[in-house]
Amino acid sequence: KAGVTQTPRYLIKTRGQQVTLSCSPISGHRSVSWYQQTPGQGLQFLFEYFSETQRNKGNFPGRFSGRQFSNSRSEMNVSTLELGDSALYLCASSSIVGLAGQETQYFGPGTRLLVL
Amino acid sequence: AQTVTQSQPEMSVQEAETVTLSCTYDTSESNYYLFWYKQPPSRQMILVIRQEAYKQQNATENRFSVNFQKAAKSFSLKISDSQLGDTAMYFCAFGSSNTGKLIFGQGTTLQVKP
Predict the structure, then answer these.
(1) Are A107 and B44 an interchain contact pair (Cβ–Cβ within 8 Å)?
(2) Helices then strands (H, E): number in chain A?
(3) Residue A50 buriedness (CB in 10 A; 0-12 / 13-18 / 19+)
(4) B22 contacts: CB under 8 Å, gap ≥ 6
């Protein structure tokens, strides 16, 4: 099976702009989670989508949003970019069987966002 | 709230030797999952090993094994016969049941020296 893919891999934006990142999960996986990785804060959970519904949300401002499509592909959007949004954004997918337990999350290669 | 702590920011080991990375966590839950992920310089997060809290037996995957001490809330990773390709940052992660949220430790950078 193909792994998790993320596009674009690299992105440069300026403050105030908005950005959309895309994630395609492993075929058959229905859950997609997003994480932000920075040198200062480490890896932080943004949100999780399952069956087109947001199941969990991390402690990030409303400028960070996401959605999931019927084919399980997910997008996250950051509006009004700030310098502090520069980070590696990682997407992970997992298969949920019966909504029980914690299935292993498999990560994509990430999108590196630089805000100038 | 759950927390994960990795107290060793950096470690080094000689090729072919054994090294242990430490991880402690805090939770009030009884059913949860623990993971070790590896992130090489490419930044691709790779699953190393997974442990279910309800299982008493420690998980093993080839040269990688864990020492899971539930009462002490400790979850260390042992890498045997270290190889140059093991050089990476290693993250310990906690996952609650029925949620796609992982809580990560700050990571341990492991350098394997020839």
Answers:
(1) yes
(2) 0, 11
(3) buried
(4) B6, B7, B8, B74, B76, B108
Q: What are the distances in angstroms from CA B10 to CA A8, A87, B20, B88? A: 31, 22, 12, 10
Q: Are A50 and A98 within 8 A, CB to CB?
A: no
For the cut 50, the answer to whether the pLDDT of residue B7 exceeds it is yes
Minimal C-alpha gap between B13 and chain A (Å): 24
Measure Cα distances from B70 to B6, B8, B75, B96 in Å: 16, 20, 8, 15
Q: Which positions in chain A touch B42 (Cβ < 8 Å)?
A: 109
User: Do the Cβ atoms of A35 and B102 come within 8 Å?
Assistant: yes
Instruction: Characterize the bridge pairing of strands B32-39 and B88-96.
Output: antiparallel
Question: For A36-66, what is each residue's pLDDT tens digit?
Answer: 999 999 999 999 999 899 988 999 999 999 9
Record the tokens describing residue A109, joined without a space: 């290669």
Q: Is the CB of B47 less than 8 angstroms away from the CB of A106?
A: yes
Closest partner CB to B47 (pick from A58, A99, A104): A104
Which residues from A are below 8 Å from B104, CB to CB? 35, 42-44
What is the rounded CA–CA span in Å between residue B111 and residue B85? 9
Decide if B103 contacts B37 (C-beta within 8 A). Answer: no
